[in-house]
Amino acid sequence: MMAFGRSLLSFAVIALPALAFNIPFRNLHRKVHLAPSNAVVGNNLDGVDVTVKATELDDSLGLSPEEKTVVNIHRVCSPSVVYVTSVLSSSSPVSTRTRRGRKKAESNNSQKHENKLPNGMSLGSGSGFVIDSEGYIVTNYHVVQRAYESNQAVLQYEKFWDDLAKNTTKNIKDKLSFSSSNVVDNVEGVLNRTVNAITGRENNETEVLPAGVFVRFGENGETDGSVTSYYSCEIVDVKKELDIAVLKIMESSDKMNNILRPMEYGSSSNLVVGQSLLAIGNPFGLDRTITSGLVSATGRSVTGVAGNQIKNCIQTDCAINPGNSGGPLLNLKGEVVGVNTMIISASGSSSGIGFAVPGDSVKESADKIIELDKQRRLRNAKRKGRGWLGAAVATSSLEESLQKRLLSSSLEQNEYSDEVVGAFITSIDTKSPLMSQEGVSTTSITNGNVLIGDRIVSVGGNAIENAEAFVTEMKGRVEGENISLTIEDVGGERRVVYVTLGQIPL
Predict the structure, then answer these.
(1) Within 10 Å of residue 102's Cβ, how many Cβ atoms?
(2) What is the pLDDT of residue 2?
(3) pLDDT, tens digit, for every residue of 337-391?
(4) For the residues of 395-452, what is the DSSP string, one character each?
(5) Phi-psi domain of 124 (left: phi exceeds 0; alpha: psi -120 through 50; beta: other)
(6) pTM to 2 decimals?
(7) Residue 444 β-bridge partners
(8) How many C-alpha atoms does 183 have within 13 Å on its Cβ side?
């Protein structure tokens, strides 16, 4: 049935444009490219390659406006949705603790670089979506949980022996302080070799973890269609409390520019019951399946894998089945407003009650994880990272509330005629460069009473309208850079301070 459906789809996509351009029917098996709506329509009769405007194709099919919206969202967003799977290598260091076993595992895992899955036991699968052009992907934590826990167990095991060796070496050095340095070095060498033998490592050998995580772009991995391509991923970090994990494709992002299409976030806090939603994922391994539904309820609390309550979850009747976990829940602008995470069902399949982690919370946590990982990679490469001011500013609803409160107060006192600008400082880290500046006050809330503090209204002479503008401005600054900040207090008094940006704490 599936093959028959695909044949009909292929005929619909290819036959209509072909007839419009009067191309002989015998050539219909050749390529037809869907172009963006603003692209020039053209055809190549020699090679029988045809480029068709997507909007013209939709019009030729007689789609309704609602259908066109859904079709276009799937067309644009589905290439960003991936199939996520994890495998416990059959020659894992977990079961083979010798150096020979570790080398065997390393050899076996070389299959990763051939875009194939290694031999081994499946640890689970689901969906995910690209959120950064450098290859970062968001999925559910429970999709990669078994792989994550397997790798963490090995890392903790080896850390135990490393710490034991260090502590033992330190104690022996203290005891043998009267002995020659050669004796101490020999004892330390014996300890290190013993630990390496126990853990199956050799000095200066790259760590090979037992479980690997892989992603696939579409059914055929965006290849020529003959081979399914899997890309090895690193689990950058997890947020168990939100049931999310951030992965990073290990392949060079330069080689994947054509398929890395980051998705945009929308506001989950602005969703209303009855609003239309779309879910894209890989239920039962069926790539890039789209389903539609509504916001059934907002503000739901569900129990996550960490055992805690995930607040403000979105309840939807979009069909969500096993394999959809980690996929995006979209509004009709094609923006991510949630991450599909679980269902309530007696059968294990969709019963019309599904839940998604709110996109606002996912974005905040994932952005922090990605930013720290990028800084860590820059630091490991001996390159300067982003500058750190160590000041938090109000965002979202808190920022809007503070702006309204300050504007209202200003109008009553006839002090301001323009809109409120600036980023409200809510906290300052104890190691922040701002700590050297006296008199910088923060916005605080005590017993329901809001005390508005200072705002940053300019960075390096560039006006700051709000928190988003401040964050964007600071992203372009590097550690060690000297910058000027114009700070305005609640009374409208401004002053300029000069700080040297520090290094982001990891």
Answers:
(1) 23
(2) 44
(3) 999 999 988 777 778 899 999 999 999 999 999 999 999 999 999 999 999 999 9
(4) -HHHHHHHHHHHHHHHHHTT---SPP-SEEEEEE-TT-GGGGSTT----EEETTEEE-
(5) left
(6) 0.75
(7) 451
(8) 9
